[in-house]
From TrEMBL:
SUPFAM superfamilies, per database record: NAD(P)-binding Rossmann-fold domains (SSF51735)
GO molecular function per UniProt: oxidoreductase activity, acting on the CH-OH group of donors, NAD or NADP as acceptor
PANTHER family associated with the record: 3-OXOACYL-[ACYL-CARRIER-PROTEIN] REDUCTASE [NADH] (PTHR42760:SF78), SHORT-CHAIN DEHYDROGENASES/REDUCTASES FAMILY MEMBER (PTHR42760)
Family matches, as InterPro entries: NAD(P)-bd_dom_sf, Sc_DH/Rdtase_CS, SDR_fam
A Pfam family: adh_short_C2
Family to which the UniProt record says this protein belongs: Belongs to the short-chain dehydrogenases/reductases (SDR) family.
Signal peptide bounds: none
Protein name per its UniProtKB record: 3-oxoacyl-ACP reductase
């Protein structure tokens, strides 16, 4: 007989279901075995089916008797062929009839046309309607550890460059995306090309790498073959050195808000033939209501979380220290999207990251560089263990998955944006929050 903890009993009485055990990537359980492909129109998109074949999945096209015998681990909905308003009923019917076949930790991915001037009002309306649909569905299936996400793409990219879909599709179907739900991945970069890196080890800079999320990112990138240079401040030297020794990386002591930080990284880059990846993870919180906040708390938070990112990138780009085919990934936050009382400085800085990433992406694409942001929600770190008990528990339960994420969940998404799989995605912010129930 299983006994519930006092915490579980309390949250059960409040209407929160018991969290499902999430399936995370362990090197062997990446992609699902069975994927059911459904279409919102009679016309099938052959490119999507061919991509799934490349992933070596057991594909079940529309309804099949085998569904009775096999549990479906993933559901791909092709919504790229809008016909008329009957498509709204079709999307209901497809999910209504097939949801029962999905296993726990299932992945649901919708592929649809992005809103664009070349489409009709009706088509663009349908695309936006799918956003609300997918987020709501994600909150319904989250109790089983399942996720729902959308990939938006233009008609031309589906037919002319279907491989641009392959990377985000494989990520969202995999166990690497276990804490990513209710998100939009838009294939929007036309100019980015994959650079050949034969016999060349890529070099990554990760700021704030001594512990927590930064250390998890460094470890993940090292496992992907990067030479990782971890950056942190002098008081974190021992922790940073220990983290880098574990992954055969290099420690570099630097205050990112220092006026000379960009120049110091430029000189470091000369020793490594430039950088292939910059991960701006360093950040602080200095929480007080704005009426009680000291001025230096405001400025320090903005300097480290936002302005240092802009200054360092500007210096590295001006000095050609980021190689062609390079990637920049910035850490934002859920609080930069939804706001948080007592965090006007932090939320301002993290919302600024989102605006910066979106604004500079077109300029960077001309240099064959992508930039994206990752916005974590409640992630289990040393910082969250110091939170008051009830506040910590509420933070864990206020997601569709009914639990907090782990640093590796953020690291997996950073690694995706750093990879060739994300070459056609730039200027975007993806939340790694298990889809917060309240807020944006």
């Amino acid at each position: 007989m299983k006994f519930m903890s006092v915490t579980d009993k309390v949250f059960s009485l409040l209407g929160f279901p018991k969290p499902a055990l999430l399936k995370r990537y362990n090197g062997h359980n990446n992609l699902p075995n069975n994927v059911l492909v459904l279409n919102t129109a009679k016309k099938n998109n052959k490119n999507i089916n061919q991509l799934l074949t490349k992933l070596r999945l057991n594909i079940i096209i529309n309804k099949d008797d085998r569904l009775i015998e096999k549990s479906v681990e993933s559901l791909v909905i092709d919504a790229t062929n809008y016909q008329d308003e009957n498509n709204y009923h079709t999307i209901y019917k497809l999910i209504h009839e097939n949801l029962k076949y999905l296993s726990t930790n299932a992945r649901i991915v919708l592929i649809a046309k992005s809103s664009q001037k070349s489409l009709s009002v009706e088509e663009n309306t349908f695309s936006q309607a799918l956003v609300g649909f997918s987020k709501s569905l994600a909150k319904e299936v989250g109790r089983k550890g399942s996720t729902v996400n959308i990939i938006f793409t233009s008609t031309n990219k589906i037919t002319e460059n279907p491989n641009a879909l392959l990377g985000p599709l494989s990520f969202l179907l995999s166990a690497k995306s276990t804490f990513v739900s209710g998100q939009i991945f838009s294939i929007n970069s036309n100019n980015i090309k994959i650079e050949a890196t034969i016999n060349k080890q890529k070099t990554a800079i990760v700021t704030g790498a001594a512990q927590g999320i930064g250390a998890a990112i460094a470890e993940k990138l090292s496992s992907e073959g990067y030479l990782v240079i971890g950056v942190d401040i002098e008081p974190m030297k021992a922790a940073l050195t220990s983290t880098m020794e574990k992954i055969q990386g290099k420690a570099f002591i630097l205050d990112v808000s220092d006026n000379s930080a960009g120049e110091q990284l430029v000189q470091l880059g000369k020793k490594h033939n430039g950088f292939d990846l910059i991960v701006h993870n360093a950040g602080i919180t200095r929480d007080k209501t704005i009426g009680n906040m000291p001025e230096h708390w405001w400025q320090q938070t903005l300097n480290i979380n936002l302005l240092s990112v802009m200054h360092i990138n500007k210096e590295l780009l001006n000095r050609n220290s980021i190689n062609s085919g390079g990637r920049i990934v910035c850490l934002s936050s859920m609080n930069g999207i939804a706001g948080q009382g007592g965090q006007t400085n932090y939320a301002c800085s993290k919302a600024g990251i989102i605006g910066y990433v979106s604004s500079i992406s077109a300029e960077l694409s001309t240099r064959n560089i992508t930039i994206n942001a990752v916005a974590p929600g409640f992630i289990e770190t040393k910082m969250t263990t110091k939170m008051p008990f009830m506040l910590r528990e509420m933070g864990r339960r206020m997601s569709a998955l009914n639990q907090g994420g782990l640093p590796i969940d953020v690291a997996e998404t950073v690694a995706f944006f750093a990879s060739d799989n994300a070459y056609a995605i730039s200027g975007q912010t993806v939340r790694v929050c298990g889809l917060n129930i309240i807020g944006a």
